[in-house]
Amino acid sequence: CTFVAGQGLATTGGDGTAIPVRALTDDRFTAVSAMGAGSLTYVGYALYNDADLIVLAEGDDPAATITGTTVGAMRFSNDRGATFVAVTGTDTSGVNNTYRAFARLGSAILAVGGTPAGQAKMLISYTNGGSWSPVAGSALAALTADSLYDIAADEDAGYLYAVGEDGTLLKIRLSGSAVSVSDITANHGIT
Fold first, then answer.
1. What is the rounded average pLDDT of the residues 168-182?
2. Which of 8-12, 141-145, 184-188 is predicted least confidently?
3. What's the rounded Cα separation, in Å, for the pair 55 and 147?
4. What distance in Å separates the CA atoms of residue 61 and residue 91, rounded to the nearest whole number?
């Protein structure tokens, strides 16, 4: 869940047996309203919230995620959750994989994920979640059994850092529309 001062709290989740829970509250849960319509039996895995923008990443039920048979979807809202638009794509672009975290640096939003013990996935959006492009590079391509689980921005230094299975640590630099990804796991004694 994500709290935005003056705007309340947006949450997503579910148990994989029904439409995922998407809720918004402006008054510390005295009143809770549903955000948009859900789909299938997906579970909400990640949520990004910035003013009126909400981006959701959803995926198969947790059991499918553990076995690596995940399928995912991404949806975004520019009206604070009143309506959601599905982001379309294929496994090649990564939108149909399960994503677990979002982070913003400048005008870019990055999403990280993949399937457990599978290929790490990273997407970038310069359109507030409306369209996404896969991030490429040898450091990311080498992570064939290391799904990514979280990402955070260091705005002062101008970098993002992503972590994944087996202690994987990536450093991401944005320069215009160019994205460079470096695996710095060994540099920090992480095993």
1. 93
2. 8-12
3. 20
4. 18
Q: What is the greatest pairwise CA distance in the chain?
A: 49
Give the pair of three-digit tokens for residue 111.
């999403």
Q: Give per-residue pLDDT as tens, 71-122.
A: 677 878 888 777 877 776 544 445 667 788 999 999 999 999 887 777 888 9
According to the model, what pLDDT value does residue 45 have?
Answer: 78
So what's the pLDDT on residue 66? Answer: 46
Give backbone dihedrals phi and psi of 34, rounded to 5 degrees, phi first: -75, 145
Answer yes or no: are the C-beta atoms of 96 and 59 closer than 8 Å: no
| Position 101, amino acid | A
Tell me the C-alpha distance between 183 and 112, whole Å: 14
Residue 103, number of CB atoms within 10 A of its CB: 19
Which H/E stretch holds residue 138? helix 138-141
Q: What residues have CB less than 8 Å from 44, skipping those under 6 apart? A: 11, 12, 13, 14, 20, 21, 22, 56, 57, 58
Count Cα atoms within 13 angstroms, Cβ side, for 48: 27
